[in-house]
Amino acid sequence: PASLHFLRKIKPKNIIGFNKENYNIYNKNIPFDGYHKHISARYSLLMENMKFKGYSIDYDLYIPDNINTQVLNYLEELPGKYNIIINPFTASDKRDLSDSQLQDLVNKLHKKYNQVNILVIGLPERIKNISLQGIFIHPNMSIYSAMSLIYHANLIISPDTSIVHIAAAWKKPLVALYGNDKHGMFNNNDVWGPGYPEAIQVTTQDKYHAISTISTIEILQAVDTVFFKED
After folding, report:
1. CB 146 within 8 A of CB 166
2. CB atoms within 10 A of CB 38
3. C-alpha span between 93 and 99 (Å, rounded)
């Protein structure tokens, strides 16, 4: 209802929607039944319906030069050779890593891999009180610094949130943790998955289980698949 009210208020000349045949506010309806297709399939269909040619559906992100320089200087001061980024938090408790799960994962990563820096990213108010052993937290955390850390990372581990799509912009090695949810008829794991070959999804047993129920052993097995280190 809020979206429909907003559309009526701004009175655009055209309103295009997917599967909106029952809403007369839309003057262009695009039928779509790709319930297991990545969201980019809808972007493509929209471009084709609008007669665009030679378009790209890749993500395009901008990082300010000064932020990128600060992050590079910060990373150069860390002791390890490889950088692993972990984003433990989302907008939903059900999709968050638990404290014990996060600490166990950090311990296992350090035990298995040499010369790794493990950096935790997230909203400053959520990560400032993390007191785990074996991690680093950038002192000036922001969305831009998180983007820069991801850009320069060797591996990212994250639940289903915006960090997945930031990693997708640069096709970074990624272990993405998903919860087998559905949005209506659409399979969330497929529609909002990473959508590129350098990423791997690890899913919960079913939609009733939280991300915190995924074992760190299973996450580590996925890390083995996508963590490409330099020679």
Report:
1. yes
2. 17
3. 12
Q: What is the maximal distance between C-alpha atoms in the chain? A: 60
175: closest CA among 44, 86, 67, 58? 86
User: How many CB atoms within 10 Å of residue 48?
Assistant: 12
Cα gap 197→187, rounded to integer Å:
19
* Beta pairing partners, 16: 28
Residues 6+ apart with CB under 8 A from 52: none
CA distances to 11, 186, 196 from 46, rounded to whole Å, are: 21, 18, 20
Task: Give φ, ψ of 180 to 5 degrees.
Answer: 60, 40
pLDDT tens, residue by residue, 152-178: 999 999 999 999 999 999 999 999 999
Half-sphere exposure of 3 (CA within 13 A, CB side): 6
Note the pLDDT of residue 184.
86
| Tokens 């506010």, residue located | 25
Question: What is the rounded distance in angstroms from the CA atom of residue 84 to the CA atom of residue 229?
Answer: 11
CB 70 within 8 A of CB 144: no
> Helix crossing, 143-151 with 65-76: angle to 10°?
60
Is 0.85 topped by the overall pTM? yes
Kindly report the length of the chain: 231
In tens, the pLDDT along 13-48 reads: 999 999 999 998 999 999 999 999 999 999 999 999
CB atoms within 10 A of CB 12: 10
